[in-house]
Specification:
Blueprint: H1 2-21, E1 23-30, H2 36-39, H3 53-69, E2 74-80, H4 81-91, H5 95-106, E3 109-113, H6 116-125, E4 132-140, E5 142-144, E6 147-149, E7 163-165, E8 177-185, H7 194-202, E9 206-210, E10 213-214, E11 222-223, E12 229-231
Parallel strand pairs: 1-2, 1-4, 2-3, 4-8, 8-9
Antiparallel strand pairs: 5-6, 6-7, 9-12, 10-11
C-alpha cells in the first residue's frame, strides 16, 4: 500500500510539474497616441484623432483571443503608460482608468511600462520562461520599418523618444517563446525590415505590413497603401 501511495504521489507531482511547464502567455503590446499640440496643423493626415486608436484595436483582438483561447488563458497587455497620461491631460479624462476597465472585463494581466527596454525585460523575465512560454505576441501602435515607436508625436513632433529598435531585438532570449508562437505587428512598415531581424533574433516569424496600416476602421487595422501586403 505504501509503495502504491508513493507511486501515486510521484505521478501527481510529475503531472503538476508538466502542467506548470506547459503554461503559456499571450502578450499584446500597446503603444501610446500622438498629441494634438503636434498634430493640429497636419489636416486630414493628422495622427490619432481618437485617443483609443491602439487600445480599441487591441481590445477587438483580445476579445477574439479570449474566445479562441478560453477564459483561463494568460493574456497580458503591456501598455506604454506615459503616452496615455499625457493624452489624458489633453482629453481632460483619466485614460488609465479607462484602460483598466478593459483589464477587468477580459481578466487580463495588465502591465504598464515607461521605456522600450521594459518590454525586453518583461519578455525575458516577466515570468520564469522555462515554465511559462510566450505563445503569442502582437503589437498595436506607431512604427516604421525598423522600430516600434511608443510615443510618436507625443513628446516631440513627428518623432519618438521611447522605442524598441530592430538592433535591440538580439537582447531577447529566443528561449522565451513556444515553438508555435504567433507574432504580428499591426503597425506601419514593420514587414519591410524589422520582421526579418525579429526572426533572426528570436527564431519566430513576425507578420508585418509592407506599407501603412489604418487604425480608423473600428476593427483591426487594415492595409492602407497601394500594393500593401502582410509578410513574415
Amino acid at each position: 500500500m505504501k509503495q502504491r501511495l508513493a507511486i501515486l504521489f510521484l505521478c501527481s507531482a510529475f503531472c503538476a510539474a508538466t502542467a506548470q511547464a506547459q503554461q503559456r502567455e499571450y502578450i499584446v503590446l500597446v503603444g501610446g497616441p500622438s498629441l494634438h499640440i503636434w498634430e493640429q496643423y497636419k489636416g486630414p493626415i493628422a495622427h490619432d484623432h481618437w485617443w483609443a486608436n491602439f487600445v480599441h484595436s487591441a481590445r477587438v483582438r483580445t476579445e477574439q483571443l479570449r474566445a479562441q483561447l478560453g477564459p483561463d488563458a494568460m493574456i497580458t497587455w503591456l501598455v506604454y503608460k506615459p503616452g496615455y497620461v499625457d493624452r489624458g491631460v489633453q482629453e481632460k479624462q483619466d485614460l488609465i482608468a479607462n484602460i483598466n476597465t478593459v483589464r477587468d472585463k477580459f481578466h487580463l494581466n495588465l502591465v504598464y511600462f515607461d521605456r522600450g527596454g521594459d518590454v525586453i525585460n518583461y519578455l525575458n523575465d516577466g515570468h520564469p520562461r522555462n515554465q511559462i512560454k510566450i505563445s503569442g505576441f502582437e503589437y498595436f501602435g506607431h512604427s516604421n520599418k525598423a522600430c516600434f515607436l511608443f510615443d510618436y508625436s507625443n513628446v516631440v513632433d513627428s518623432a519618438s523618444k521611447a522605442w524598441l529598435h530592430e538592433t535591440e531585438l538580439k537582447k531577447i532570449d529566443r528561449r522565451d517563446f513556444a515553438r508555435d508562437t504567433y507574432v504580428k505587428s499591426w503597425g506601419c512598415h514593420t514587414g519591410e525590415s524589422m520582421s526579418q531581424l525579429w526572426r533572426e533574433a528570436t527564431g519566430t516569424r513576425m507578420w508585418g505590413a509592407v506599407g501603412k496600416t489604418d487604425y480608423s476602421t473600428g476593427e483591426l487595422p487594415a492595409l492602407s497603401s497601394a500594393g500593401g501586403k502582410w509578410v513574415n
